[in-house]
Amino acid sequence: MSSAMALSEALLPQEALSGIFGSISLATWIFLLVPQLILNYKTGSADGISLAFLIVWMVGDITNLSGAIWADLVPTVIALAIYFCLADLVLISQCLYYNHINAQRRQSTVISEHEPLLARRRSSDTIGLPGSHRRRSSARSGASEHSGSPLNKILEESEEGTGNQWVKNSLSALGVIVVGTAGWAIAWQAGVWQPSPLDAGMEPASETALGAKILGYTSAVCYLGARIPQIMKNYKDKSCDGLALLFFLLSLMGNATYGASILCHSLEKDYVMLNLPWLIGSLGTIAEDAIIFVQFRLYSKKQTTEAVVE
User: Fold this and answer.
1) How far apart are CA 21 and CA 41, in angstroms?
2) Cβ atoms within 10 A of the Cβ of 240, count?
3) Would the CA dihedral through 127, 133, 139, 140 be positive or negative?
4) Which end of the chain is more exposed for a tag (fewer CB within 10 A), N or C?
5) Which of helix, strand or coil describes residue 50?
6) Whose CA is closest to 255, among 232, 287, 208, 207?
7) What angle do CA 35, 89, 249 make, to 5 degrees?
8) Residues with Cβ < 8 Å from 267, sequence gap 6 or more?
9) d(CA 73, CA 212)
10) How far apart are alpha carbons 153 and 159 in whole angstroms?
């Protein structure tokens, strides 16, 4: 009890905020790829996500890991970078698998559609039994009725589901914040987490190895450029189908809390310059995530309007 009180007395507000933001960021990154992995599994497709986005992002994670090790950053950052490289491999492998399987299915479907075409034409020419036209017309009307069911479902999901989707995802993000904050509180009370000295990481930025700087800035460029192929794909398709909204929401939250954890620790010039590549990579992508959020809103409304017109 006395040790906990000593810790609480020595803990400064900026240290507590830095620890809380860092813990929330850690929890966010751990859960980040899960929504997209689940969505791909449920739909059996990865057509909505750009492979270029994932590959460039993985290059950023690899250079981030290499730079973090070279710059001798805190073990949490290094462990998280290792985890993220492994998670990237899982997501990319899943996308490649579904793209391969679906390409084979589309090819087999095209072949099967061409083979019975002649047989269907012959049967329609030779068979002229009484009532056959009536049956065909009733089949068409039944098909049109069934085709209306998916349309109604789409409209219901577009009108009612879109708002619920944002609410559910916001609640999920709030849950991650609670988990991250609780994790920090437990670690602090148990003595596992302790505030870093304010002069930690204050060595002049000029003393940082040149290779670590290059890797750090390379990772920042990759993170900033990775989302561009996804934004362009969404714009070209006029759709965000196949993308997990929670994936990008957690990405924005993780980047924001990661940058906040660094800035809350210290605003000294040398410390900020040392962490500048990681700050650029995290805070710079927030604007791009915001663009994707706008696309989610715009294209969901556009799809609803098109469904109504049809």
Assistant:
1) 31
2) 22
3) positive
4) N
5) coil
6) 287
7) 30
8) none
9) 10
10) 10
Q: What share of the chain is helix, strand, coil (3-state, %, to 5)?
A: 85, 0, 15
Give me the helices (H) in 157-209, please: 162-189
**What is the spatial distance between Cα 40 and Cα 67, in angstroms, rounded to a whole number?**
31
d(CA 179, CA 104): 42
Q: Read off the amino acid at residue 17.
A: L
- Count of alpha carbons within 13 angstroms of residue 159, beta-carbon side: 10
What distances in angstroms separate CA 52 from CA 17, 22, 56, 228, one per listed residue? 36, 29, 6, 9
Burial of residue 56 (number of CB atoms within 10 Å: 0-12, 13-18, 19+): buried
Q: What is the full per-residue pLDDT of the chain (310 aa) written as tens digits?
A: 444 444 445 677 888 888 899 889 889 988 999 999 999 999 999 999 999 999 999 999 999 888 888 877 767 678 778 888 999 999 999 999 999 999 988 888 777 666 665 455 555 554 444 444 444 444 444 444 444 444 444 444 444 455 677 788 888 889 999 999 998 889 888 877 776 665 554 455 555 677 888 888 898 899 999 999 999 999 999 999 999 999 999 999 988 998 888 888 878 887 788 778 778 878 888 989 999 999 998 998 665 555 444 5
Residue 291 CB neighbour total at 10 angstroms: 16
Which residue has tokens 């049956």? Answer: 135
Q: Tokens for 234?
A: 């969404």
Which residues are CB-neighbours of 221 under 8 A, at least 6 positions away? 60
Task: Compute the half-sphere exposure of residue 179: CA atoms within 13 Å on the CB side of its CA.
Answer: 13
Q: Are 255 and 261 in contact (CB under 8 A)?
A: no
Cβ neighbours around 155 below 10 Å, total: 14
Per the document, the length of the chain is 310
